[in-house]
Amino acid sequence: MTAHPPLAAFLKARPPVLARGPIALILIEDDAAVEETLRHHLALGFRHILALSPGPVPVPPDAGARVTNLHWNTRDALAHQGAVDAVIRAVPAGTWLYYCYNAEFLFFPFSETRTVSELLAFHAEERRDAMLTYVIDLYAPDLARDPNAVNLTEAMFDRAGYFALGRKGSDGQPLDRQLDFHGGLRWRFEEHVPPARRRIDRIALFRAAPGLRIEADHRFNVPEYNTYACPWHHNLTAAIASFRAAKALATNPGSRDAVDSFRWRNSEPFQWRARQLMDLGLMEPGQWF
After folding, report:
1. Residue 121: which residues within 8 A CB-CB, separation 6 or more?
2. Contact between 69 and 56 (Cβ < 8 Å)
């Protein structure tokens, strides 16, 4: 098999790394913070990472056994949909999967001292097959210095301005335990963001199951997967600290001339700690202590 094989060929071969999760899919759209993204998720304890990219990307030499770089057109608008669905079909039912993009970083309660496997073991004990994650926008404080809006050492984010709206089904009735969450850059610069992309909720951690499919809007075809908690108490939630929206707003022709800074009165330096996000209510420890 080539050094940068197609995703389909890799999955068809049923390599041993697919036999057990948690497995991370990282869709690499550009060269922003690729190594940092890989190293962050390796440190969390993912057993294997599938790094999907249009062309080969350098994989840290000390991480080669746990990272496989595969060819995938990540610049397609529905890149996540095809990739996630393909992996769901290829892994054993019940395998925990996770997906994100480069320059995105998963945080969960107590993630400095606990692994993602510990997190998901507890979540499974609560009879949960999916976990809600909030995408928290990060951005560079000075776009003149960092025109792609990415600066890991001086990253900022919004400490306020988040809200949820009731989610309705096709019949116009409220859906049980489902909400549409908003905030961050997608809310402050909503005139530059299509309505379908303004939500910040993503079911990024989930268990593979027969017939499970992800939709274009990052929801799943199984309603229970899209819920924020079980009926009887609060459950764990996580957060993805993401430069993706900032990159798009700062570089896309339709918005870059209208954005000279992302800083505002509620901007706060990002400390790269789960506790900061928990203190602001941006993720929920549930019954896990």
Report:
1. none
2. yes
